[in-house]
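Regression test case RT-17, inverse folding.

Input:
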């Protein structure tokens, strides 16, 4: 077997719900490093002085966002049935995360990158639907949508309009969907869009529910 190639590479889909939605990406990474060890997996380690399990997260989910479509890519030093892999991880996760699926990837293939994510927003009053629909139409009509990012002493303006693919305008059902593209040059965050939408409608987006419902991955 090629020493530079894992015996098995699997994509594990998991749900981040409940209290786990308030775990940061770094918290999640540390949790998974402990999780694969508790599950007794033949995990492949990085090289170097301080080796770590080989785990790749195509997308870092923001705080407070629910998701049942999160993915981590895992490399193993020996083969393991994917359903056994899922069961071991799910038992070791002890209800903190729900492990939904494990499926094989080409062992020599590159890690996949996220190309787009779809989110569902909900939580406003029915009577607010018309003003939200107008605010959404106005946002989508803009050529630029600039938001502030960075530390307080190093603020910068970023145009997120190129990454906002579409947004539902039917707010009367109490929920709407938006699709955000990702590229090496950047992306938008769903909370940024929700904040802008709510501000334009004179509402408080912090009472809303944000959920990632789909994620497109490509090599």
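Golden output:
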């Amino acid at each position: 077997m090629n020493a530079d190639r894992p015996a098995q590479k699997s994509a594990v889909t998991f749900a981040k719900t409940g209290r786990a939605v308030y775990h940061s990406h770094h918290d999640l990474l540390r949790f998974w490093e402990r999780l694969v060890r508790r599950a007794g997996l033949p995990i492949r380690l990085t090289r170097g002085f301080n080796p770590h399990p080989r785990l790749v997260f195509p997308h870092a989910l923001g705080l407070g966002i629910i998701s049942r479509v999160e993915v981590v890519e895992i490399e193993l030093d020996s083969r393991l049935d994917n359903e056994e892999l899922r069961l071991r991880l799910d038992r070791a996760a002890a209800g903190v995360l729900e492990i939904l699926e494990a499926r094989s990837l080409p062992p020599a293939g590159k890690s996949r990158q996220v190309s787009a994510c779809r989110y569902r927003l909900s939580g406003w009053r029915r009577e607010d639907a018309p003003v939200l629909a107008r605010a959404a139409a106005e946002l989508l009509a803009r050529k630029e949508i600039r938001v502030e990012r960075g530390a307080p002493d190093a603020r910068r303006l970023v145009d997120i309009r190129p990454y906002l693919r579409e947004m539902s305008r039917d707010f009367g059902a109490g929920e709407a969907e938006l699709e955000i593209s990702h590229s090496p040059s950047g992306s938008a965050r769903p909370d940024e869009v929700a904040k802008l939408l709510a501000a334009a409608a004179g509402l408080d987006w912090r009472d809303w529910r944000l959920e990632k419902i789909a994620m497109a991955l490509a090599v």
